[in-house]
Amino acid sequence: MSSTTAELLWLFVGTCGLMTALTLLGEILHARAGHDNPVIETFMTRVRSWWGMVILFTLALIIGKLGIILLFAFTSFAALREFLTMTSKRKADHLSLALAFFAILPLQYLFVGMEWQTLYTVFIPVYAFLLLPVVSALRGNPDRFLVRVAETQWAMMICIFCLSHVPALLSIEVAGYPDDRGVMLIAFLIMVVQFGDLLDFFFGRRIGRTRIIPGISAKTWEGMAAGVLCAAIIGALLAWMTPFSVMGAAGMAALASLVGMFGNLVFAAVKRDRGVKDWSHLIPGQGGFMDQFDSVIFAAPVFYHLTHLIYV
Amino acid sequence: MNAILTFPRRLAAKIVGLAISLLVRFLTAVRPDWRGIEPVPRQRVYYANHVSNADMPMIWSVLPPNMRRTVRPVAAADYWLKNKLRAFVGPEVFNCVLVDRRPEAREAGANPMQAILDALDEGSSLIIFPEGNRNMTEDPLLPFKAGLYNMGTARPDVDLVPTWIANVTDIMPKGEVIPLPLICTVTFGAPVHVREGEDKDTFLHRAAASLADLAPKGERL
After folding, report:
1. Distances (CA, A) of B61 to A205, B48, B66
2. pLDDT for A224-239, tens place per residue?
């Protein structure tokens, strides 16, 4: 057994321990407060969904690269479906939307899988950006054309391009950091961002006073500061997973968490614009895939590029 | 004896039904929006807009299993009896009430309403498409046929529930080949009843209006 596999197992054991603790906490709160407290009910449904995600993610990590690529390609698909359900479209866009789902998405993940960095970093921002509007224009309906192509492009950037930067971390080569440890970097990113969110939610409820965008999101400056600080501490503790120093890991974790939280705010504004509370109802207690991964979506490309810039 | 002989067929119908509902949910991620009613087993007639052949399986799939067991879609006999596969899926999997739309094919004196009223008297709920045909126009709804009014007057206790199926036209516009995997919503509105002394046209207009009300609001995005 290689050291990475052993460490992954330890990580899984550790996460399961934490999840068990959260489940027990929920059960104790349940027993104390009864069964009709909505906050605790939400918490319990979320913990159950997290269990599902931890297990799926671990399975993907064990399968290795192919598992990770397929897992995120599927997540992209689910996110894109939620996003494009909400965007402006006409019959003239049908072919370009079909191409987004069935050609651009698989190609982007193929490029990520082949580690063709020059392709996967420009494919959607350049080629899809220029070519899909051509496909829509050729079908000849100019009604709200700019809105339609802009929204479709935004959907592809967010749901395919940004999200594919999580598995793209596999191809980062840092001197002195073994090739097969890319999976640890992915686990690091997701853990610091998601725990940052969780603690932001927790502290926001406890000590949150000042809403960041009143009327759109429940996020508070106090909760966010506490969440980012906790993410930095968790990042420092998990520095052994990364090619970063302890301080470097704390800094990267804080940055990823901060960017992710602002991503969450951006999506809150998008959802408000479209008059929905959640993107969909596919994950019990969490809304849709976009609701669950909005912060990871924003954090991934920034984390990827900074790692490249500073460490490669 | 008969029960033993039909058992494999009924089992197959159950399995096919489960497979259809899973497939529909995977392809369209369809979800119910219980806006005007609760998802409880109560006798109802769900009347819905009709734009595609997937409409009936979609409503059927979003109903919880206990409601699905007592619901019977009203469907065209000329469509569902065309071949053996359809004759299995329509009457046995979906447990359709088959009605012949072509007057010349009916037996002399046979009343197509009778099969529907019999199903209601057995306690079944129904799914019907009061436009009669698939809506191929740009209008949200075609004029309703009289069937809904006749059910409402003959069995006034039964709730007539408007049921709007959204997004199907975006998933597969006319003339397109590839379906888009967008998310569909089936919205159930507040029930309507035929009022005392209300005539057919007034009622059908009112029923159509409460159905069209459930369509997503605002300017078309």
Report:
1. 38, 14, 12
2. 999 999 999 999 999 9
Instruction: Pick A281's closest partner by Cβ from B31, B174, B180.
Output: B31
Neighbours of A6 (CB within 10 A): 10
Whether the full predicted model's pTM is greater than 0.90, yes or no, is no
CATH no. of B2-212? 3.40.1130.10
- The number of residues in chain A equals 312
For the sheet with B159-166, list strands across it.
Answer: B31-34, B185-188, B159-166, B44-48, B125-128, B71-76, B97-99
Q: From chain B, which residues contact A within 8 Å (Cβ)?
A: 29, 31, 167, 170, 173-174, 176, 178, 180-183, 218, 221
Query: For chain B, which residues make up each domain, given as ranges?
Result: 2-212
Query: Distance between CA atoms of B197 and B192, rounded to whole angstroms?
Result: 15
ipTM confidence: 0.79
Q: Where are the domains of chain A?
A: 1-63, 89-171, 173-312
A282 vs B29, B174, B182: nearest CB: B29
Q: Could you tell me which residues are beta bridge partners of residue B162?
A: B47
Report residue B5 as tokens.
């002989």
